[in-house]
Amino acid sequence: MEGQERLLFIDFEFTMPEGKANPKGFYPEIIEVGIVSVRNHKVEEQFSSYVRPVRFPLLSERCKTFLQISQAKIDEGISFSELLTTLNKYNEHSPATVITWGNMDMKVLRQNCQMNNEVFPFLGKSRDLSMEYKKFFGDRNQTGLWKAVEEYGKKATGKHHCALDDALTTYNLFKLVEEDKRYLQKPTPPTIGERIDLSKVLNKYAT
């Protein structure tokens, strides 16, 4: 098991200010985490929890409405330190590859670590699936996670902006994109004309 690469599909939800003007010292804090751990193409573990913010512990009305989340649920969540303990657990044997939709999740995690004087937990590769999707399909603009799934003619998992559901949706989309990549990399079977030189055959019968 130790020799197999672990892929971590991660989604975070963050705090947000009430309006456009940020309160003094405000920065987005992680308030929900969803993790899908995959090894050898199989889901080995799922993890989901609310997380208590440190700097601004009270959620704005905008945040509660947008995420359909209550203050009571957040107050029952794990601490940021406990979140880092959980994340570090996935790096016990070898650095995991973290896959997210967009680059905000790792940016906010890194900032949260800095603001709390904690060590960033991931040492392995980090992949932004939204950029891979954009390059693969030649899109000019980045596509939202759920729109990308719909473009495949599929349905997303569960509820949008629920961290675990979004992490599962990212994993399912990853499988679809990887399958397409493998399909396009397969060499096409040679045509009859490529297998034999028709000009030689025609010349033979012309003489």
UniProtKB/TrEMBL annotation:
Does the entry feature the keyword Nuclease, yes or no?
yes
Q: CDD domains from the entry?
A: ERI-1_3'hExo_like
* UniProt-listed InterPro entries: 3-5_Exoribonuclease, ERI-1_3'hExo-like, Ribonucl_H, RNaseH-like_sf, RNaseH_sf
Q: Which GO terms describe its molecular function?
A: exonuclease activity
Q: Name the keywords, alphabetized.
A: Exonuclease, Hydrolase, Nuclease
Q: Which Pfam families match?
A: RNase_T
What the entry lists under SMART domains is as follows:
EXOIII
Q: Does the keyword Nuclease apply?
A: yes
The residues covered by the Exonuclease domain are 6-183
Q: Span of the secretion signal?
A: none
Its protein name is 3'-5' exonuclease KapD
What organism is the protein native to?
Answer: Metabacillus bambusae
